[in-house]
Design brief:
Elements (H helix, E strand, L loop, with lengths): L1 H24 L7 E14 L11 E16 L2 E16 L6 E16 L8 E11 L4 E6 L5 E7 L5 E14 L2 E14 L23 E18 L2 E12 L8 E11 L4 E12 L3 E17 L1
Antiparallel strand pairs: 1-2, 1-14, 2-3, 3-4, 4-5, 5-8, 6-7, 8-9, 9-10, 10-11, 11-12, 12-13, 13-14
């Protein structure tokens, strides 16, 4: 029995070795799937001690993960991107930690190239976009005694945005593309805790009193463009526009992020992030966020 067993192992090993030899002599088939990701830690710190010019000690840190899944075969292109980030800021004299970033977003876009080769960069497309945040968000203020207070404004899945649309996709490279979806449905979901006590006529991220969702039908335009400004300095631009056909189509929602990365070496970068948001449902003014710091980058 042992003899037969060892003979079987010998045949199995010989067959495996032969198959490996044949594989090395033949052309390796390239996979249609590609995936890549990046982990970034962004830090910023300032400290003062008996500084006569004034100043406030602060310490902040942000963790960000970007991951891409790409499939391309026979005119089909499927790009999926997962973005998540979370950052906190500790300011001297404040009893609360404050968020500098809080994001969870999934983008998935499926395109099929036109059969006409004269317009090879164009595709039919459909996309799904989902975004929310991880933890509670607060509004901070000081009471009559000068003590800092906070009021809860948002939390996980409140709000949460889900968009699904179909349209046209133009893709030059993975670093330059535009997707226009003239038929886009958007669902805004919130926790009913924030809407049950609203005053008459008031809304929470566009959701009416006592409700936990709002449906919109409109058009969306999404675009991405990354380029090298100078050597070791990359600038990425990500923009999203949305117009609701059903209510105030002239009020266009905007989400525009500019990320400038200045490479120091393989692992260290200086990052400058600017984000502009206009959403008529949340606040009728332009929201601006700016974060700058030293980043540690790791490929995953």
């Amino acid at each position: 029995m042992i003899k037969y067993f060892f003979n079987f192992l010998f045949i199995l090993f010989f067959t495996y070795s032969l198959s490996q030899e044949n594989l090395s002599d033949s052309t390796i088939v390239k996979s249609n799937w590609n995936s890549s990701g990046k982990f970034t830690f962004l830090g910023n710190q300032s400290s003062y001690s008996y500084w006569t010019a004034g100043g406030q000690t602060s310490l902040s840190g942000t963790i960000k993960i970007d991951y891409d899944f790409n499939f391309e075969n026979n005119g089909w292109n499927w790009d999926t991107k997962v973005i998540t980030a979370y950052g906190l800021n500790s300011i001297g004299g404040s009893k609360y930690l404050k968020k500098t970033d809080d994001r969870l977003e999934l983008n998935s876009l499926l395109g099929k190239k036109f059969t006409n080769n004269l317009i090879g960069n164009w595709s039919y497309s459909s996309f799904v976009n989902f975004k929310t945040q991880w933890t509670k968000g607060y509004r901070f203020k000081k009471n009559s005694s000068g003590e800092e207070e906070r009021t809860e404004l948002t939390r996980f899945f409140s709000p949460a945005y889900l968009q699904i649309g179909v349209g046209l996709y133009w893709r030059k490279t993975k670093d330059l593309w535009v997707n226009f979806a003239p038929a886009t449905g958007r669902l805004i979901m919130v926790n009913r805790t924030f809407t049950e006590n609203l005053s008459e006529g008031k809304q929470y991220f566009g959701v009416s009193k006592g409700s936990n969702s709002r449906f919109e039908l409109g058009a969306s335009l999404r675009s991405y463009f990354k380029f090298e400004l100078i050597e070791n300095v990359e600038v990425s631009n990500r923009i999203s526009l949305y117009s609701d056909y059903l209510e105030n189509p002239g009020n266009i929602d905007l989400d525009y992020t500019i990320n400038t990365t200045m490479k120091v070496n393989k692992y260290l970068t200086t990052n400058l992030i600017l984000q502009f948001i206009y959403d008529d449902n949340s606040i009728k003014r332009l929201q601006v966020r700016e974060v700058m710091g030293i980043g540690v980058n790791l490929k995953i």
